[in-house]
Design goal:
The chain is an alpha/beta fold. The protein has 2 domains: about 200 residues, 3-Layer(bba) Sandwich (FAD/NAD(P)-binding domain); about 110 residues, D-Amino Acid Oxidase, Chain A, domain 2 (2-Layer Sandwich). The chain contains 14 helices and 17 strands.
């Protein structure tokens, strides 16, 4: 096998990096995952994810984790409601009392929270695979070995480095000089613990699933989580320097409330519950996208996956793409078909790049229609097409 006697370093312990580590260990490879978090519980994970038949679920099956996934996913969490600015329901998937839990159905997209998915992947790895508190600082190539340095002063060596370190990847510049461009939106993300008590109206509206509204050029997405909290996302089309120039301290609740009441003038109080009860500070996320013509030449010992390779605005495909990247990279690196690791990396990167570009185009198209006046109607049409 190409990876015999090779040490692989995966930078980043998100779903993509952990999935790759699991798949490579199943093939007998030597893998370490270097993760900046101090430990598995130090950072609250994000909202729910829906895994798709042709990508995320396919990878879960290949990783031998389908049984534990079925024990962990959240039935019914995939059901959504489209509402207007006052919280009036205009489309409701909950009216269909028949729950689709058929894992053989290509349209079934079961939901799982990020935290439990991460736990499934972590628990599947060999002991001490993840090296915590390892925030990447720099690396250099010495005698065909990567010399890795971390901000805590630790060092490591690896024959192959794989950047799975997300949208702000520190490994990406070692692969390509191409820079992502601003995609035109900023997302404000918040979490409300114990929503049944702290935000009862929104909790009831969610009914354990999701709520969407695209009204007056604004997009709000709210989702229930298995821990009793809810996550929300507010997306606005603004210029790239809006956060710096707004004069708003989004960690100050009074300023945040003042901004929200002005920006969402006339909206129902159910939305105000979000701002009044969210943990602060909000997570502020300007959205970027890879160049739509990006390509690079494969290297003999370095590659990328997930957002590190193809950053784009949220499209519902992000984690699924990262997990599919991990599967295809693992298959290429452990295949007898390729003469060397560079050929294997090249065979992985070409379809990965093409797939990422096509999804980025879809994502950018979504950014446009989600912020239009007719967005709610468009969303309902999409729901009806999948039924």
């Amino acid at each position: 096998m190409l990876l015999d006697n090779k040490q692989i370093a995966i930078i980043g312990g998100g779903p993509g990096g952990l999935t790759l580590a699991r798949l490579l260990q199943l093939k007998g490879a030597n893998v370490k995952v270097y993760e900046r978090d101090v430990n598995a519980g130090v950072r609250v994970q994000g909202a729910t994810l829906d895994l798709h038949f042709e990508s995320g679920l396919k990878v879960i099956e290949a990783a031998g984790l389908m049984d534990v996934f079925k024990e962990t996913y959240r039935p019914g969490a995939d059901k959504g409601r489209v509402v207007d600015s006052h919280g009036n329901i205009i489309y409701d998937e909950h009216t269909d009392e028949l729950s689709n839990d058929d894992f053989d159905d290509v349209n079934f997209r079961p939901e799982i929270d990020r935290g439990p998915l991460r736990d499934i992947l972590l628990n599947s790895l060999d002991p001490n695979t993840v090296v915590w508190d390892s925030q990447f600082k720099s690396m250099s190539l010495v005698n065909n070995l990567w010399q890795l340095e971390f901000k805590n002063g630790a060092t490591a060596t690896a024959d192959i480095v794989i950047g799975a370190d997300g949208a702000n990847s520190k490994i990406r510049p070692f692969v390509t000089p191409l820079q992502p461009f601003y995609a035109g939106t900023v997302i404000l993300q918040g979490n409300i613990p114990n929503s049944e008590i702290t935000a009862p109206n929104m909790h009831q509206l969610l009914k354990g699933g999701k709520v969407y509204t695209h009204t007056n050029g604004k997009f709000l997405h709210v989702s229930a989580k298995g821990d009793g909290s809810i996550d929300f996302y507010i997306s606005s089309q603004v210029n790239e320097n809006w956060l710096q120039n707004s004069g708003i301290d989004f960690s100050d609740r009074e300023q945040l409330l003042s901004w929200f009441k002005n920006e969402f003038l006339g909206w129902g109080n159910v939305w105000l519950e979000l701002i009044e009860n969210t943990d602060l500070p909000l997570l502020l996320r300007p959205q970027y996208c890879m160049p739509l013509d990006q390509t690079w030449d494969a290297q003999p010992n370095l590659t990328l996956l997930g957002d590190a390779a193809h950053i784009m605005p949220p499209s519902g495909e992000g984690v699924n793409l990262a997990m599919l990247d991990a599967l295809e990279l693992s298959e290429c690196l452990t295949s007898a078909e390729y003469k060397d690791i560079q050929a294997a990396i090249s065979a992985y990167e070409k379809p990965m790049q093409a797939r990422g570009i096509e999804e980025a185009k879809t994502s950018l198209d979504g950014v446009e229609w989600m912020h239009t006046e007719a967005a709610n109607e468009k969303l309902i049409q999409l729901f009806n097409q999948t039924e």
